[in-house]
Design a protein that fits this description.
The structure holds 2 protein chains of 2 kinds. Chain A is an all-beta fold. Chain B is mostly beta strands. Classes of the chains: A mainly beta, B mainly beta.
Chain lengths: 117, 106
C-alpha cells in the first residue's frame, strides 16, 4: 500500500523559514517524481513544485509565486522528499501536500503551515 | 503560462442526475489533463488522467473526454458520495490547477 506522510508543519513568523518532509513507502521511491501542492484555507489547489527522479535528472521546477524562495530536495536512501521554505509570507499559509508521479496518483494527508506574527 | 478555467463554479444537482463539469485551457494541453475529487478535510483523489483514463478503483460512472483546450468530466448518475469539489489539472511538465467546481446537493 502506498503511503505518504508529511511532517514539519507549524506556526512561523513572516520572513521565517521552515522545512517540510514527506516520507514515502509502498512504492519504489527512487523512481518517483515527487510534487508539493498547497491549499490555502477555503481556497483551491496550487502546485508549488516538483523534483524528478535521479534517473530522469533529479531536476526541480517551481511556479512563479514560490520560485527563489522554495527548494525541493530528495534523499532516496530515506525515501523522503523535502520542501525548504524561506522568506515566508502570510499568503504562504496553507495545508501542504506531497503527491507522487507525473500524474498525482497518491497524496499525503497534508501538513498545515501558518505564517503569522 | 497555461490557465485552466472551470465551469460552473457551483453545480446543484440531485442524486441520480447526470453531472457535466467543464475545464477550458488557455492554450492546447493536448490530452495532458487530469481530474481530481476532494471532499472536506481530505486530500484530493485522482479520478482521470490523460483526459479519459480512469484511475485505479474509480467507478465507471466517472468519465472524461476532450482534447486540446476543452475537456469534460461526466458523472453519469450521481451517488451521495460524489458531492465534493472537482479540480482539473494540466499534467505535462507543468501542473496548474483549475479553480474548482463545487458539486452540491440540490
Amino acid at each position: 500500500e502506498v503511503q505518504l506522510v508529511e511532517s514539519g508543519g507549524g506556526l512561523v513568523k513572516p520572513g521565517g523559514s521552515l522545512r517540510l518532509s514527506c516520507a514515502g513507502s509502498g512504492f519504489t521511491f527512487s523512481n518517483a517524481w515527487m510534487n508539493w501542492v498547497r491549499q490555502a484555507p477555503g481556497k483551491g489547489l496550487e502546485w508549488v513544485g516538483r523534483i524528478k527522479s535521479k534517473p530522469n535528472g533529479g531536476t526541480t521546477d517551481y511556479p512563479a509565486p514560490v520560485k527563489g524562495r522554495f527548494t525541493i530536495s530528495r534523499d532516496d536512501s530515506k525515501n523522503t522528499v523535502y520542501l525548504q521554505m524561506n522568506s515566508l509570507k502570510t499568503e504562504d499559509t496553507a495545508i501542504y501536500y506531497c503527491a507522487t508521479g507525473a500524474v498525482f496518483d497518491y497524496w499525503g494527508q497534508g501538513t498545515l503551515i501558518t505564517v503569522s506574527s | 503560462e497555461i490557465v485552466l478555467t472551470q465551469s460552473p463554479a457551483t453545480l446543484s444537482l440531485s442524486p441520480g442526475e447526470r453531472a457535466t463539469l467543464s475545464c477550458r485551457a488557455s492554450q492546447s494541453v493536448s490530452s495532458y489533463l487530469a481530474w481530481y475529487q476532494q471532499k472536506p478535510g481530505q486530500a484530493p483523489r485522482l479520478l482521470i488522467s490523460y483526459a479519459s483514463n480512469r484511475a485505479t478503483g474509480i467507478p465507471a460512472r466517472f468519465s472524461g473526454s476532450g482534447s486540446g483546450t476543452d475537456f469534460t468530466l461526466t458523472i453519469s448518475s450521481l451517488e451521495p458520495e460524489d458531492f465534493a469539489v472537482y479540480y482539473c489539472q494540466q499534467h505535462s511538465d507543468w501542473y496548474p490547477f483549475g479553480q474548482g467546481t463545487k458539486l452540491e446537493i440540490k
